[in-house]
Structure formats: structure tokens, C-alpha cells
Design a protein that fits this description.
Number of strands: 0
Helix content: 55-70%
Oligomer: single chain
Largest sheet: none
């Protein structure tokens, strides 16, 4: 059986086929609720056959998760889109605003994958964001200053807020939400940095991981 979400492939034909299937699914979901989209419609739009579809994906859910996986990479990068000094609390990274705008534009797709507890896309987002945050913290701050806790808090905060937002539990536009999330993340890191100052000699490093 094919994996739920396929990884990268060195075969350009395989990569092109998967890209066509992902694009076909997202296109279909923009025109109707995701739960009404069928494999037959996706393969028709992609110019592929059912056998080809099942060669790469177990089902439509696996395809949808793969199609949205790029959003995970974009989210991780958007929250780290700065060099030495992060933007202030009133200036969230523009990449974050852009990302949230893209999610809002395909909210039906993300709503189907980000369930109340995060769902499969939420799990992937949390995992990747925690890993990146932890790596950045280890690079920027001394060891033993709560990196595990901070990375988990960052990943949990962003994943939870994004999930509630696509389910309309948070009333905010992309730019407003970006500002709110950014201020919350800065507060998490400021608290961690303050703890680090009390236990580690020397000035704190950059406040974000």
C-alpha cells in the first residue's frame, strides 16, 4: 500500500504527476466543498487514471494532506523570516500575513484537515514547527534554558490558533491575526529569555527561535 503522504521523488515524471494531482484537488475544492470531491473528478482534472492515483496515494485525504504540506513549510519559514533581530510586536513578518491570506483563500480545504484537535495537518505542522524552533533556539541560546518547553509552546500556540481560526472560532482577518499571533509568540520567547537570564550568565540571545 502506498504511504499516506508520499515523500519526494527523484523521478521527474513522478513529481509532475503528484503535482498535477495536488493542483487538481485544490482546484476542485475551490469550486465545491471538499467532502463532495471524488477521485474520479480529481483524476479527470489532472488528466490521469485511477490506477495512477492509487499508485501515489491511499485516498483523497492523503492527497489533500500532501497538497497542504507546502503550507507547513511556508508556515515554518514565515515564523522565522528574519535574520538577526525579529520584527517588533507591531510589525509581524509580511510572510506570515501572506501565508494567512492564502489559508483564508482555501479555508474549506484546511478546515477539513485541521480538526478540533489539530488533525493530520495540525500534527504535521506542530511537529515541523517544534523541530525548527528547537533547532533555532539551540543555535541562538545557551543550552539548558528550556528549549524543549519553548519550542513546544511555540508550536502548540500557532497550530492551535490556526486551527481555531479556520473553524471560525477567532474573528480576525489575516493581517490582524498575524499581529496577534506574533505578539503572543514574542511573549512566549520573552518569558523563556527572562528565565534564561536568571540561570545563565551573560546577556540573552535573540528573543526568537
Amino acid at each position: 500500500m502506498a504511504p499516506a503522504v508520499t515523500g519526494g521523488s527523484k523521478d521527474p515524471r513522478t513529481a509532475r504527476t503528484r503535482a498535477r494531482l495536488r493542483a487538481a484537488l485544490l482546484e476542485a475544492c475551490e469550486q465545491q466543498p471538499p467532502d463532495r470531491v471524488t477521485v474520479a473528478e480529481v483524476v479527470r482534472r489532472a488528466g490521469a487514471g485511477r490506477a495512477t492515483f492509487y499508485l501515489h496515494y491511499d485516498d483523497l485525504h492523503a492527497l489533500a494532506l500532501d497538497a497542504c504540506a507546502e503550507t507547513v513549510r511556508e508556515a515554518v519559514e514565515a515564523l522565522h523570516a528574519w535574520d538577526r533581530t525579529p520584527p517588533g510586536p507591531e510589525s509581524p513578518p509580511r510572510e506570515l500575513v501572506t501565508l494567512l491570506g492564502e489559508v483564508r483563500g482555501r479555508s474549506a480545504v484546511y478546515r477539513s484537515l485541521l480538526g478540533p484537535g489539530g488533525g493530520p495537518l495540525g500534527e504535521l505542522l506542530h511537529q515541523e514547527l517544534r523541530r525548527r524552533s528547537h533547532d533555532e533556539l539551540c543555535r541562538r541560546r545557551p543550552a539548558g534554558t528550556g528549549h524543549d518547553l519553548t519550542a513546544s509552546a511555540v508550536a502548540g500556540l500557532f497550530t492551535g490558533v490556526l486551527t481555531d481560526w479556520v473553524h471560525d472560532r477567532i474573528d480576525a482577518g489575516p493581517e490582524q491575526l498575524a499581529g496577534q499571533v506574533w505578539r503572543a509568540l514574542l511573549a512566549v520567547h520573552a518569558a523563556a529569555a527572562s528565565h534564561g537570564r536568571s540561570t545563565v550568565t551573560g546577556p540573552p540571545a535573540a528573543p526568537l527561535g
